[in-house]
Design a protein that fits this description.
The protein is an alpha+beta fold. It contains 5 helices and 12 strands.
């Protein structure tokens, strides 16, 4: 007797946010990676380096989005070496769009591309699973986005200062973590401007865990531990 598989083997639950401000972009995400009801990683990093001034926030199948970000990063770094100048954020977004659209029927990948370049400053581009590309002053994606879309829309305004943008991003991700079962862990925040990225980790309740996470997780990533 043949058994029919009826389950959903891929969980795309997450919460990712990117918001423009005058001088750059703030990106934020939760840190939970889950497979159906099993939490496989509670400290995942969904803010992925593409170039020095361009990052992407990943949503969808973790393995597929990691492979996509790695391929796009390698391609753009090759272009930077050949041309001798940094890549534009819109070029990175188009590259992601082309990959996602070409594989839209076989892969579950969605990204928010955010970064800074000398031509247009801070920029946010949203690329959902369909391969559609649009620039927005802010973008929210993932399963937790339905809980916080209205919050971001009501509180964001053009020219919003950096400290308010960071506070809004942290608040939104924490609300999503509280309501969405597929979002959880810590809140990772990155501030991208002309000098690169500054990163930090915010925990939901325990400030001591936040200090340890900031020192260990980010220092290990950049080889300073």
């Amino acid at each position: 007797m043949e058994l029919e598989y009826k389950g959903n083997g891929i969980s795309s639950g997450t919460t990712i946010i990117a918001i423009e401000y005058d001088g750059g972009v703030v990106i934020a995400a939760d840190s939970r990676t889950s497979c159906q009801n099993y939490v496989s990683n509670r400290l995942a990093d969904k803010l992925t380096h593409i170039t020095d001034n361009i990052y992407c926030c990943r949503s969808g199948s973790a393995a597929q989005t990691q492979a996509l970000a790695r391929d796009v990063s390698a391609l753009l770094n090759h272009f930077e070496i050949v041309m001798g100048e940094p890549m534009l954020v819109c070029d990175a977004a188009v590259t992601f769009r082309n990959h996602i659209y070409r594989n839209r029927n076989s892969k579950i990948t969605s990204v928010i591309v955010a970064g800074w370049d000398q031509r247009q400053g801070g920029q946010v581009y949203s690329v959902p699973v369909s391969g559609f590309l649009i620039r927005e002053p802010y973008a929210v994606a993932g399963s937790g986005s339905s809980y916080i879309q209205g919050l971001i829309t009501s509180q964001y305004y053009p020219g919003m200062p950096l400290d308010e943008v960071v506070a809004l991003a942290i608040k939104a991700v924490k609300i999503a973590i509280g309501h969405d079962c597929s979002s959880g862990g810590v809140v990772r925040v990155g501030i991208i401007d002309k000098d690169g990225i500054r990163t930090s980790v915010y925990c939901q309740h325990d400030p001591e865990i936040c200090q340890v996470a900031n020192k260990m997780l980010w220092s290990l990533e950049f080889g300073e531990w």
